[in-house]
Design goal:
alpha+beta; T-fold; 2 domains; ten-stranded mixed beta sheet; three-stranded antiparallel beta sheet; globular; disordered N terminus; binds magnesium ion
């Protein structure tokens, strides 16, 4: 499913009310990634953007045997592994959110994710002993990161790298495993934004499997009636209980990232019960706290991604505090069909839901 070989490729040019735009979609990072450029996106730019996604996939995917993350996992309990500056950045941020969420978000959740197999071909409810065994291997405090250093005293040893000693990552015990499924797509979106800035792109929408970045200013509708006043981006929020594409409401925003974690993204059903993919690092089971989805807005997509998972796992009270402490907006959607948000940017459109402000 992860193979970069089969690409879903769609390139089209359209004259929308918002001016000329083109978009391209390809499978990367285990999901459908769509990039839409306004004002006529050049093919070389799409090429550069998607190449960057595949580069990041080769560093961070657990589904590629030769990725840096897979190498760290194989060397668990054995030896530290050199890591790229990119992976080091993501691991450091992951550890920050692990600490800030008191382990509700944990990048060493790999053994548990592997056990459940949600999103794979054979998901199943594991038995007690299996869960206990996997849980015993989940602990972000046993991920050792050592930063890059310029070692002036051993210029000979480090000759190949000009005296530069690379960063390393080490999982202390055998069987431990990293899983960056809750943060890597956010990092990737931020990297694409850097490339767009370099290219001088004015407006774009990046959507990496629901990890969204609305970049630049939304092109104004081309109409003399509406004038050319600045318009905000509108990002629909999926109704978790309805078909894909059915929105419960929308956010109106300037440039920012919008990331949702929900029970409907990846799940399987066994004996009539739904098991989704955000795991409770205390029980080893999917988080059950009455939430259907959490949407986070933040300037950093990496932060928004990690926060969406962390805030979902922590629930309304603690999660709300964590989001606010990190300068992020949050929209909570509950099974009882209430939506809690502090965001003035949110507009409810589905009257089946009730809005609760906090
Ligand atoms: P999505 O992958 O749909 O964007 P998330 O960002 O919420 O959703 O990430 C969920 C993924 O993160 C899971 O598929 C799994 O790989 C991983 N994961 C599950 N539970 C946790 C957790 N408690 N902490 C960190 N990562 C987790
Ligand atoms: Mg996430």
């Amino acid at each position: 499913m992860y193979a970069a070989l089969f690409l879903v490729f769609s390139l089209f040019s359209a004259c929308t009310p918002e001016g000329r735009s083109s978009a391209r979609s390809e499978l990367a990072l285990g999901t459908l990634c769509r990039i839409e450029l306004f004002g006529g996106g050049k093919p070389e730019l799409y090429g550069r953007l998607f190449s960057r996604l595949y580069e990041i996939e080769r560093m961070m995917s657990v589904n590629l045997a030769d990725s840096e993350v897979s190498r760290i996992n194989r060397a668990a309990g054995i030896a530290p592994v050199p890591v790229s500056p990119e992976l080091f950045t993501v691991l450091e941020r992951a550890v920050y959110f692990a600490e800030a969420s008191d382990g509700a978000f944990d990048p060493t959740v790999g053994p548990l994710v592997g056990l459940w197999g949600i999103g794979g071909d054979n998901p199943k409810v594991p038995d007690r002993e299996e869960i206990e065994a996997a849980l015993a291997l989940v602990n972000w405090k046993e991920l050792e990161l050592s930063g890059p250093a310029v070692d002036e005293t051993s210029a000979v040893d480090g000759a190949e790298t000009g005296g530069h000693v690379s960063a390393t990552a080490f999982l202390r015990r055998r069987g431990m495993a990293l899983d960056l499924g809750a943060i890597a797509k956010g990092f990737a979106a931020d990297e694409l934004v850097k490339l767009l800035r370099e290219a001088g792109t004015k407006s774009a929408v990046i959507d990496l499997g629901g990890n969204i970045y609305v970049y630049g200013t939304r092109p104004p509708p081309r109409s003399f009636l509406s004038g050319f006043k600045k318009t905000k981006w509108r990002v629909g929020i999926q109704n978790p209980l309805d078909d894909r594409g059915a929105y419960a409401g929308y956010l109106e925003l300037d440039e920012t990232s919008v990331v949702t974690s929900g029970v409907y993204e990846r799940f399987f059903t066994e004996n009539g019960k739904r098991y989704h993919h955000i795991l409770d690092t205390r029980t080893g089971f999917p988080v059950e706290n009455g939430l259907l989805a959490v949407t986070i807005t933040a300037p950093s997509s990496m932060d928004a991604d990690a926060l969406s998972t962390a805030v979902f796992a922590l629930g309304r009270e603690k999660g709300g505090v964590l989001a606010a402490a990190n300068g992020a907006g949050a929209v909570f959607m509950f099974e009882d069909k209430t939506i809690h948000t502090s965001s003035a940017d949110f507009t409810l459109t589905d009257t089946g839901y009730r809005l609760v402000e906090f």
